[in-house]
Fold this sequence. Notes:
Elements: E1 2-3, E2 6-9, H1 13-24, E3 29-33, H2 37-42, E4 48-49, H3 51-59, H4 64-69, E5 71-73, E6 75-80, E7 83-88, H5 89-93, E8 97-99, H6 102-116, E9 120-122, E10 125-130, E11 138-143, E12 146-151, E13 154-157, E14 175-190, E15 200-202, E16 209-215, E17 218-225, H7 236-247, E18 260-274, E19 277-278, E20 281-283, E21 289-290, H8 298-319, H9 323-350, H10 358-371, H11 375-386
Parallel strand pairs: 1-12, 2-3, 2-13, 3-9, 6-15, 13-20
Antiparallel strand pairs: 4-8, 5-8, 6-7, 10-11, 11-12, 14-17, 14-18, 15-16, 16-17, 18-21, 19-20
Helix pairs in contact: 1-6, 1-8, 8-9
Amino acid sequence: MKRTQVVIIGAGPAGLLLGHLLHRYGIDSVIIENRTEQYVVERVRAGVLEQHVVDLMTQTGVGERLRREGLRHGGVWLAFGGTRRRIDFEELTGKAITVYGQNEVVRDLIDARRATGRPLLFGVSDVVVAAVDSEAPRVRYVLDGEEHEWVCDFVAGCDGFHGICRPSIPEAVLTGYDKVYPFAWLGILAQAAPSSEELVYSLTDRGFALFSMRSPAVTRLYLQCRPDEAIEDWPDERIWEELQARLGTRDGWKPNEGPIFQKGITPMRSFVAEPMRYGRLFLAGDAAHIVPPTGAKGLNLAAADVRVLAEAVARFYRTGTEAGLDAYSDTCLSRVWKAQRFSWWMTSMLHFGAPYDGFDYRRQVAEMDYVTSSRAAMATLAENYVGLPIDIPPP
Length: 395
């Protein structure tokens, strides 16, 4: 049996960033992950960072490559009726977003963790969390055929929606709020130079489409499809035909085409677990909440969670007070529900359901027209997209 201050379960962005922040506070931690390092690094997910995440990474010494390779966007385009209209984030809020893949964030944080010499363990199995309602929680796991056990002060459940931490909380304590959308996203990565310097969200009567990018040479594109569709039913030719039909505008703009080297279908759902704390176990990131990707909030919410948690844990060791720990769940959930509202709103505005509903589609067009012509409406979208403030409880 070994002793540490915090055991972090999950080596995705939430777990790695939490470990990084705790290290900077001088707090010891162990990070364990059931997947291989290669899987974690190569898993393609979110690619839009809010301003607060960019600032946090820069301030804590893991932003050098982000600053060099990230693509800063001062606005976003909304397309409908064959036209594109731009919402200027910087003019409306003074902030921007940065396109930088989640797997790149993970690479940077793994490198930073390795430099500290603190434990980062991949490929563990049979993870068990015990005694989290005491002052000495325990975490057991198997690594390379050997059983290990850590005693700690706190456990951070950063192990995703399908992890073991949330189910470790008694059912009588936990309430889950779930919404499954009748849409999915077919996402591709293509070896093609982006034809726009900023994201393009498009509403059409054929369904939603999104133009994004990962680098000056790689385009990231999405199509709305049914959740029950098989990727085999979408050959490259069909994908490009549908993307051109949904994204092309009357001024001649359209996405550049190139070889598709990755594609997959992702169902869309919203989920929130309340509370995000039970005893000395704290949930963060996807373990506590899932958002549809339309609002680009998943990774950003995870970063906000662990920023609040790291500060609360540091305050505990610095002053002995548990006030920050006690406020953790309510503090995070306030921001989470605002992000859920924004993500739901973006999804409902942009995704067109089947069968065709002429009234609903015209209502969506009217909403897009309003959102792109009213300064107040544009400001509302902009301030939510670039990221709402993080309210860390005072000492």
